[in-house]
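Support case: user asked for a sample of complex input and structure output to validate their parser. Sending the pair below.
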Amino acid sequence: MLEFFQQAVNGLSLGAIYALIALGYTMVYGIILLINFAHGDIMMVGAYVGFFSISLLGSNILVAMIFAMVTCAVLGVLIEKIAYKPLRNSTRIAALITAIGVSLFLEYITIFLLGATQRVFPASAFPAKYYNLMGIVISNKDIFIIVSAVLLMIVLHYIIKRTRTGKAMRAVSLDREAAVLMGISVDRTISVTFAIGSSLAAAAGVLVGVYYNTINPLMGIIPGLKAFVAAVLGGIGIIPGAMVGGFVMGILETMVSGYGSSLYRDAAAFGILILILLVKPTGLFGKNNGEKV
Amino acid sequence: MLEVKDIDVYYGAIHALKKLSITIEKGKIVTLIGANGAGKTTTLKTISGLIRPRSGSITFKNVDITRTAPEKIVAMGISQVPEGRRVFSAMTVLENLEMGAYLRRDKKEVEMDMEKVFTRFPRLKERRKQLAGTLSGGEQQMLAIGRALMAQPELLLMDEPSMGLAPLLVKEIFEIIQDINSQGTTILLVEQNAHMALSIADNAYVMETGEIVLQGTAKELMNSEEVKRAYLGG
């Protein structure tokens, strides 16, 4: 039983990271019906910005995170304006292929500029401490990851539920044309969505650095795909779904690693995707209303 | 107040509006009637800036708005109650009304206007915390009208407000339209229910396949043999 709770705790911090990434996928999908396959790579860029602000500027982890979030917010908005906006009225497959192109671009421009070797996230930025809670070992890293992810989700929830901009985002996602008739600028709303989604990914990138200690230019691919599965699991386009889906994926992955073999953890993640698509394609929180109009 | 002049609108190769001209004077109710597919909704969408005409011009209060962004057109004082109501189903009644006032920064006045909407539609007040998607068709129509009024429009474009409503409700909606007009808002009303529309309008246009085929005062059209035969079931 203790082993089970230990795995669950480990899974929570991984799940918090997946949830943060999944939120960006789902928000962008909710607004422009695009699976932004470059999203995992934005997370990678965030990890690098965090890495350099710690190693070069000597900033602490919180400052590094804010720095990464701001940089990636700008990056996300630029990607949308340059790559996706011109395709807004073309087929969805064209935008999807472009997203894969942007993903490859971010990966290989990073390799070109910074090299392909992995870098060790400075341990000094986050000296590890371990606490024993009734037999369950929890590190200060886990606590930091979970607390910061949950705080960011609370802030996001507040923005979406309470602010004028958040309400406009929901309106655009529900009915774009009706939103325009309210005087809402769709361009601006899409930009804000990309900015928020990308900054959450950047925060996740820094947290991945803290969690795994190493970063590399291709680090965004697998967590990106798993977060995508998490978003589908929760119901793509549904924000609470992405949060729950992320935590489920994280806990499942550590359970499979802990009780089975870590060789199977990726297979389990994508097995979930296949299962969801077979059994309930709209996801846990999705209502079956066919194609969104 | 609004002058639509010789606009041509295309959907790909389809010529949807052909040299269409409409004039709306301040304070009036003008109605645009015609069969399904005549181009009535397209006309309203073009005025709101959702569709761009290929040629012709639209002027509102002597300003050319032919190429103005839709959100600017709203800011200038043109609101629309779109066809099929199009309320934000997963948002509350209150949030829907807030969206109507999206461009306004005068918080106090917005609150006063919200109270006015609630006085006009007491049922919306009872249901203000409810999701719009859970309202009945009539309530959704009232919400769509209330939402458009929250923008303080000088010109209100209404697309088939009676569609899908029970006869008693249709009567109520038309009374509301007259009341909104009597408080100073100019109205362009698109309707399939020609009889009701003509009975409250000052002026009317009849559309067929993208063109205005008849125009005049509502009274003249009500008595026109052609209109009687084609639209009033006489």
